[in-house]
Amino acid sequence: MKALVWHGKQDIRCDTIPDPEIEDPKDAIIKVTSCAICGSDLHLFHNLIPAMMPGDVVGHEMMGEVVEVGSETRKLSKGDRIVIPFTINCDECDQCLRGNFSLCERSNRNKDLGDKVFGHSTAGLFGYTHLTGGYSGGQAEYLRVPYADGTHIKVPDGMPDEQALFLGDIFPTGWQAAVQCDIQPTDTVAIWGAGPVGQMAIRSAILLGANQVIAIDRLPERLSMAEAAGATTINFDDESVIERLNDLTGGKGPEKCIDAVGMEAHATSHVDALYDRVKQATMMESDRPHVLREMIYVCRPGGVLSVPGVYGGLIDKVPFGMVMNKALTIRTGQTHVRRWTDDLTRRIEEGQIDPSFVITDTVPLDEGPGMYRVFEQKQDSCIKVVLKP
Ligand code: NAD
Ligand code: ZN
Question: For residue 294, which ligand has an atom nearest its CA?
């Protein structure tokens, strides 16, 4: 089959590799009908997440049709249309039973490695580092789905791929980021990053009844998309984020802050930006925490910092004393995708939201490597790429 394969920094190729096979009775195989490129894939593209290996198949946003099921797979049959959550979950361990699906205790087949690096291992993830199992991803014609009974979302009859696809990652990710803010009707929610995750967080915060939603980015097309949803926007290239946020909140700062940027934050005019770039380039720091610092500084005392943005390792010069003295709550994590997807599927069916609004580019799978560059460089107003194997 054809698949997008990681060969190293900024080197993803469309290779021909063997088709996946059932390896465990709990597996299923799907023929992928649609997949997408995520901001998390860009961290892999830039080789900022440790423990990727040449030959790894990337991609963790995918859906398709079941073509084969293992002998112990009870909830799926050939022909079923399913979206695959990027977190592999067994549905039986203590964490899965609590709905903490991204912390599944069984699905990481490299548990020892995870234990060593994180203290305790987390769930297996598709198309990601070997710290989370090194499972082949879904930017491919076929995908093996481990623990398939737990690791799927059934697509309602008649729902097109474009509406369903993002149930596997960015929609529940934006949603979880907003839910973790515990939004009150009087709240201002400020969201850094108007990429696909930020866009979903903006719409989620509005659906959850925030009084005011403020989107921060520097790309005009992304800010326009945020504005169309009803957000107030700040272009961090043109204005001071801290001053504008204080102005928009009567000097008190937003109660809730969402970091939908993560470890590759840009900062144009700050000394800390230069410092982080140098430290990241010389591998003395793995992540650039500019957004975190800004959020901690501007957040209203007693507020919440919700962090869906991915961090890989070490951050430097984060003012934890400010977090402590301002009594801020930090909530974060890889998304517990399936915790949210019944509710979100219903919201799509009811027309409360159509997540396909975010798609700007749809191309065949073998154009994927080129689209990584386009998405990376944010060229041609690219916001979200869907690949068709
Ligand atoms: P993206 O790269 O398309 O979007 C990031 C956006 O942040 C860009 O529009 C960029 O211009 C903007 N940005 C950069 N620096 C900024 C700054 N200082 N202030 C404000 N905006 C800034 O990526 P995406 O697909 O939207 O993903 C965003 C983040 O979410 C990534 O870190 C990704 O890994 C993470 N993610 C997490 C989960 C999860 O489960 N927690 C799931 C999916 C994605
Ligand atoms: Zn993702």
Answer: 1
Q: Is the CB of 218 under 6 A from ligand 1?
A: yes
**Burial environment of residue 209 by CB neighbours within 10 A (0 to 12, 13 to 18, 19 or more):** exposed
Residue 32 has pLDDT above 70, yes or no: yes
Domain range for 72: 2-168+335-388
Say yes or no: 109 and 22 in one domain. Answer: yes
Q: Do 83 and 205 sit in the same domain of this protein?
A: no
pLDDT at 198: 98
Do 160 and 37 belong together in one domain? yes
Find the 262 Cα to ligand 1 centroid distance in Å. 6
Q: For the chain, how many structural domains are there in total?
A: 2
Q: In terms of pLDDT, which residue wins out, 316 or 348? A: 348
| Residue of 219, 239, 288, 310 with the most ligand 1 atoms within 8 Å of its CB, for mutation | 310
Instruction: Identify the residue whose C-alpha is closest to ligand 1 atom 4.
Output: 195
CB atoms within 10 A of CB 326: 16
pLDDT at 363: 98
Choose the final residue of a domain: 299, 317, 332.
332
317 pLDDT band (50/70/90 cuts)? confident
CA 222, 228, 234: angle at the middle one, nearest 5? 50
* Model confidence pLDDT, tens digit, residues 220-246: 999 999 999 999 999 999 999 999 999
**Could you tell me if the CB of 363 is within 6 A of ligand 1?**
no
Last residue of a domain, one of 288, 315, 332: 332
Residues 51, 54, 56, 58, Cα dihedral to 10°:
90
Tell me the Ramachandran region of residue 74: left when phi exceeds 0, alpha when psi lies from -120 to 50, beta otherwise.
alpha
Residues 154, 242 share a domain: no
CA of 67 to the centre of ligand 1 (A): 34
Report the CATH number that the domain containing residue 346 is assigned in CATH.
Answer: 3.90.180.10
Which residue's alpha carbon is at the smallest distance from atom 25 of ligand 1?
A: 39
pTM of the model: 0.97
Whether 270 has a pLDDT exceeding 90, the answer reads no
Token pair 């998304």: residue:
335
